[in-house]
């Protein structure tokens, strides 16, 4: 049996990445600007297809940070944030010296619960605090409740920072994720649906706002022949080398989405007749997920005591990587002192959820190994 490591999500090159990187070397654009950066931005703008402007940055985290800066978040402000997410959604709130307030998930999309969100807003307003922004996340590529979250945000005139780091290629009612927030965020980290090795982008409704983001991302240089600064600057621009990888990856983005969705179908077929295990799936046909990661929920009361941890260890013994869902931020040592609104939805998801190998580059042999472990666990023939 082949025991090479099967990863949760690993980089998957398309083939033309090195051509764009070579061009950068040939033309000496080895800098955080150049034709690949501009090209990557244009490719993304075309892909998002709703007139949004895109600024390429060094990471998704940098994009979230600049998003908060653009929304005017300052020291002492309050920012509402989905609790169940990767820490990169929340850390930039602290970079700004602002206070995070964490919100529970709902069970349909595992994302921001609109009811808990509104409760949080009302409670904070009663305390005399008007929250400055809402950070909403499309977990594992499943869109959050776009309309319900927008309705709450609009009712209180609070802008949405849409963390679409996991959802490039997902859409809701035919509109691409990344374009629903007042500002959107994409990530091209090594484990994401496409990668630039490390990188990200900010999505803005206007070119003027994109230019403001790039101004901040390139040290906030005022117009002058010397170096003159009136605002805090950052070094957050994407390298033209990384953008070369990104241009190659944009050519295969649709293939990656199709392969990841096929992995989701693969798990649906395996767990179809296994009681107590459900594969995380969009609630209805308005939602289209890239299924960046395929995730399952395990209910030990219906699986004869089988837990996600038993499954994780059995996969690990066969050199197959799987991982619990994101541990909610309100349970993290660094964030537990901040307010939290909701019940135990995100906590329960964390306790019972598991992400399974989902890469767009998995082979039939990999799938056979995964399937054999999973079926064996439940006493079924592979
Ligand atoms: C990956 C990720 C980020 C951060 O992106 P980087 O490019 O790694 O900085 C932010 N939010 C979520 C939900 C992510 O999964």
Automatic annotation (TrEMBL):
Keywords: Aminotransferase, Pyridoxal phosphate, Transferase
One GO molecular-function entry: transaminase activity
Coiled-coil region list: none
InterPro entries: DegT/StrS_aminotransferase, PyrdxlP-dep_Trfase, PyrdxlP-dep_Trfase_major, PyrdxlP-dep_Trfase_small
N6-(pyridoxal phosphate)lysine PTM positions: 192
Active site residues per record: 192
The UniProt record lists the keyword Manganese: no
Statement: the UniProt record of this protein carries the keyword Metal-binding: no
A GO BP annotation: polysaccharide biosynthetic process
Protein's UniProt name: Pyridoxal phosphate-dependent aminotransferase
Lineage of origin: Bacteria, Pseudomonadati, Bacteroidota, Flavobacteriia, Flavobacteriales
